[in-house]
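A sample copied in:

***
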Amino acid sequence: MKKTHEEKTQMYSTWGDKLLQHTDVLYDLQINKKITPITIQLAPLEACDSDCPFCSVAKRPLKSRISFEKIRNILKDFKELGAKSVEITGGGNPLLYRDRWNGKKITINEVIEYAHELGYDIGIITNTHNFSKLLRQDVYDKIKWLRVSLIKLDEGKDPEDYDFNNFPQEKLGFSYIIYESTGGVPDEASRTGKPYNGTTVESIQKMAKLVELHPKTKFVRIAGNCLIKGNNAAIREKWKPVINEIDTLDKFFVKDIGFDDSPYNSGCYIGGIRPYIAPNPHGKDYQVYTCTSHVLQKRTYDLDYSLGSVDEIKEIWQRMSENMKQGKPPYEIKGNSGKNWCSSCKFCYYKFNNKLLHTVASEMPDKNFP
């Protein structure tokens, strides 16, 4: 049976109530007042060979990268805290990772192997069009899923140019951001000075052709420009009929998140469940950030949203759990006492996650009231 855009959003997106699948974590949160990480979002470097005008981290410290030794320590610490999966992401193309402290002999493949040894489910988000130069085939079985952003189709590549080097199609997904033309001038944060023409019907047709060439691919996730509030709902109304007509293989969906991309005002917990590991905005020590959404306000990392250094991971989680045991929110940002999040964050793509977590974590004396 053909799935709706809403059903696909639930399956292939963090938006929604997928957290209900992790009853062990919810039990700990409600009964033991303990926050357990589920997924670690790890940005091992900031290098990227694209220059998207909608890039949420366009002003990031591009030369930052983390040592393999530090990655090992991060993954060990989070595993001991109970983390189940790691999402290798950030910057655009994390497959470019090399450990400059080890003569570049350590690559993203060694990161994958080590995470697998620890028992993590491993997902990867990248915008590369060519796996053969970066990803070894002997690590394919260690990867749970891999999502490719299709911006290269707007940078001169054709569907036939994509080389997934025999990566299993059933583990593969595509994503694309619909965006407007930059009007013949580059984005204000562009580092290449290259303008972009924006999304056209031909863009969607190219994606459909790519799916035809790789028909076992799971999905093509379409979303709006996250730098513009409410844009996802606007592009869904405009583009959903076009996409439905072109999508003959039933692979596409427009991310169904509604008009409201503001925070859940009463509480934020996602930093304890799905932390984001990325560099200091000045390119120094790597930090544990509350989420990936925080970058949308400055298009770079912001220490106001850091829970602490990656050298303090266990201490951070102990502190959050102690706060919960004392009836306090797990953390606060900008002196907000862990409340009134709409005053602290302009955007949030974890609103429903936080609403669910807040409901689970809060004492509700009238919970049985009909």
